[in-house]
Write a structure and sequence with these properties.
The protein is an alpha/beta fold. It has helices at residues 20-34, 67-81, 94-103, 123-131, 140-150, 176-182, 205-208, 212-219, 233-242, 257-266, 281-288, 301-304, 319-332, 348-362; strands spanning 5-11, 38-44, 58-60, 85-88, 107-111, 134-137, 157-159, 188-193, 222-227, 249-253, 269-272, 293-296, 312-314.
Length: 376
């Protein structure tokens, strides 16, 4: 048996981390390890060093939160293992990943996620992107934005959508405990799960709040549950009061991953008419739990909803479209015993086939595994 090709992955977080990027990294590293012909060593800038990865990847967090400690550990691992491929988990890691790859004549694969590559970044980040053998983005929107300013060869920029574990996210009845907590026994529930960050106001909370009363008049009593925390909470609370809908809104705070499935089962619709989403793994989680989705039509949400095949897409700047789409979704009802049809296209097996094809591309190999070419 030929020796396994070594891959050194430099990621922001993975095992022990919360949020969409940590989950994406876990899925990707597990997919690479599942091939069997690659030896995966992953270093995290944050996360839990004691977390046990699944799928055979080696995982460590050298000095949590320390960029210097992270860089020194990456240098030591590079010199010791001499990887064939360096995987840069963020465009911002490029100034570290590129010289490490060149030091041992490895190839470079850079992962990107959303608005961080919609326009030029710092000069060294841009330089590393231009010298990567492969750059992947999570949506066609991000790919088009990147190609629009970077001058990169389109052949080297591929789309790798997020994935969802259909064994982890499943439909089920409305959880009685949440019905009591949010007092929604006789109400329909709208749900948004996102950080409440002043730097991420594109998520669309402030597009839903002003039209809640109109939606209620059309679809009956409702409650808007906003899950998430951040420094934008006071502004959103003020906006709810000014719009006269504070009685319809519950700011639920941070909801841990372990409790998200129950919230998707509770909701009658998941709403997030964003304008800057790279993809939106929360859409897939909601769909897998049988919860219908309303999203914006100007960003990576379009890919998550398969051009509208999996949910309703609206112009985020047209309040009437939001009211029409959300009201129609609520009146149509939802299933509590099956996922939204079509979400299986984003399931783990399909994702792993795409990752395998991309790994061959990044390593400069032909697609010898019969998995098909990854989406450009």
């Amino acid at each position: 048996m030929s020796p396994r090709a070594r891959v050194l992955a430099l990621v922001s977080d993975a095992w022990g981390g919360e949020g969409g990027i940590a989950q994406f990294n876990r899925n990707l590293l597990e997919a690479l390890a599942a091939r069997g012909d690659l030896a995966i060593e992953a270093l995290g800038l944050t996360g839990r060093a004691a977390a046990t990865p699944t799928g055979g990847a080696r995982w460590s967090v050298p000095r949590p939160g320390s960029k210097l400690g992270f860089a020194l550990a990456a240098l030591v691992r590079t010199l010791r293992s001499r990887p064939a491929l360096v995987l840069s988990g963020l465009a911002g890691f490029g100034p570290l990943a590129l010289p490490l790859a060149r030091l041992v004549r490895a190839r470079l694969w850079t992962l990107t996620h959303g608005i961080e590559i919609w326009q030029p970044g710092p000069r060294l980040d841009n330089l590393a992107l231009r010298h990567a053998q492969l750059v992947t983005t999570v949506s066609r929107c991000s790919r088009e934005r990147l190609l629009g300013w970077s001058g990169l060869d389109p052949e080297r920029v591929r789309v790798l959508h997020n994935t969802v574990d259909l064994e982890r996210w499943r439909p089920g009845p409305r959880p009685a405990e949440l019905v009591r907590r949010y007092d929604v026994a006789d109400r329909r529930v709208l749900l948004t799960v996102a950080r409440l960050s002043s730097a991420e106001r594109y998520k669309g909370h402030d597009r839903i709040l002003p039209v809640l009363r109109q939606i209620e008049r059309r679809s009956g009593p409702l409650r808007y549950v906003v899950a998430g925390r951040g420094d934008d909470l006071p502004r959103l609370e003020r906006l709810a009061r000014e719009a006269g809908v504070a009685d319809l809104v519950t700011f639920a705070g941070f909801v841990p991953d372990a409790d998200l499935e129950a919230h998707y089962r509770l909701a009658d619709a998941f709403v997030m008419p964003s304008t800057g989403e790279g993809f939106g793994i929360v859409f897939l989680e909601a769909l897998a739990c049988g919860c219908p989705v309303v999203a914006g039509n100007r960003d990576g949400s379009v890919d998550a909803l398969a051009d509208g095949a999996l949910g309703r897409l609206v112009d985020p700047d047209r309040p009437a479209e939001i009211v029409d789409a959300v009201s129609a979704t609520l009146l149509a009802g939802r299933s509590h015993d099956r996922p939204v049809a079509g979400v299986e296209r984003f399931a783990i097996p399909c994702f792993r086939r795409q990752v395998s094809a991309l790994a061959d591309h990044a390593l400069g190999r032909a697609d010898r595994r019969g998995t098909g070419a990854a989406e450009p």
